[in-house]
Specification:
The chain is α/β, with parallel strands linked by helices. It folds into 2 domains: 197 residues, Ribonuclease H-like superfamily/Ribonuclease H (Nucleotidyltransferase, domain 5, 2-Layer Sandwich), CATH 3.30.420.10; 69 residues, Alpha-Beta Plaits (2-Layer Sandwich). The chain has 12 helices and 12 strands. Strands 2-5-4-3-6-7 form a 6-stranded mixed sheet. Strands 10-11-9-12 form a 4-stranded antiparallel sheet. 27% of the residues are buried.
């Protein structure tokens, strides 16, 4: 039997023991993509706009590699109700990279060099998508934002949210943060690794899981503070590591070059500072703080 082929010859068995089977369906937004706009809920009067964005690229380094496909889905949502109201538009664009793409990229995405030949992103159209200062959401924003802003540096000051980093999926009962897994757990599948389809799939996930959408929006609204434990003595490194701190070294020789750091929600700042002051005596004078909003996050 081919992958994803429905086992027609087992229908009788499925009907007789449905508890032994799980039926999943294609994401409805993918099936209905040609029928936009798609209404998901009634207006409540406080609607805002967000753009779900995904890039397919020919590599992982935003300075050495290029985006080859840009997909975007425009969504109206209600911040007070934490729900998506309407899928208003979607778009997909190709762009020929500086070098021909490898067979591995074609295997993953289905995109070929012939499909990219002579193609380029419509910069004017892309710019119009971001009129009105919408929120941008990606499923791994730390990857997509770097590539997007390298390609479109003039669009570098928008609010970004990440449906991986801003949503505590394990707390919601899921064992993985991969988009395919999350949708499969909800009973849906989609043809992955094409940018526009991935965006429609994420929109559907946020629609059917209001708790995830609520956490995402809260994460976008909340500023964080990166606390840098400058001068922390060597003997407290294990405590810092166990408390979620990471080590940073930029290769310089200054006293400040090597230090431990951690990002926490703004409301937890004082608690974290108190922890460091109890851990080592010089913390009260040596800790550095950097405040980050959704306009700077994931760069």
């Amino acid at each position: 039997m081919l992958k994803n082929e429905f086992p027609v010859n087992r229908i009788a068995e499925i009907i007789s023991a449905p508890e032994h089977f799980k039926l999943i369906e294609i994401v409805p937004l993918v099936k209905q993509a040609s029928q936009l706009p798609i209404r998901l809920a009634e207006d409540v009067g406080d609607e805002e706009e967000l753009v779900i964005l995904d890039l397919e690229t020919d590599g992982l380094n935003e300075h050495e590699n290029d985006p080859i496909e840009l997909g975007m889905v425009k969504v109206r949502f209600s911040p007070s109700q934490n729900c998506l109201i309407e899928i208003t538009d979607s778009i997909s664009m190709f762009e020929q990279p500086r070098q021909p793409i490898g067979e591995n990229i074609t295997e993953i995405t289905g995109i070929t060099n012939d499909m990219l030949d002579g193609q380029s992103f419509d910069e004017e159209m892309v710019t119009t998508w971001f009129e009105g200062d919408p929120i941008i959401v990606a499923h791994n924003a730390s990857f997509d934002r770097k590539f997007f802003e390298t390609r479109f540096p003039e669009l570098g000051n928008f609010r970004w949210g990440c449906s991986i980093a801003n949503v505590d999926w394990p707390a919601l009962g899921f064992g993985s943060k991969k988009l395919e897994y999350l949708l499969s757990s909800h009973g849906f599948f989609y043809p992955a690794h094409r940018a526009e389809v991935d965006c429609l799939a994420l929109a559907w996930l946020l629609h059917i899981n209001p708790d995830a959408l609520r956490r995402l929006l809260n994460g976008i609204r909340t500023s964080t503070v990166t606390i840098r434990a400058i001068g922390a003595p060597f003997e407290v490194k294990d405590v810092l590591k166990a408390s979620g701190y990471s080590f940073d070294y930029n290769g310089e020789t200054s006293y400040f070059a090597k230090h431990w750091y951690k990002s926490v929600p703004g409301e937890d700042e004082q608690e974290e500072l108190d922890f460091l002051c109890e851990l080592y005596s010089s913390a009260s004078n040596m800790v550095a703080k950097e405040y980050i909003t959704s306009r700077e996050r994931f760069k």
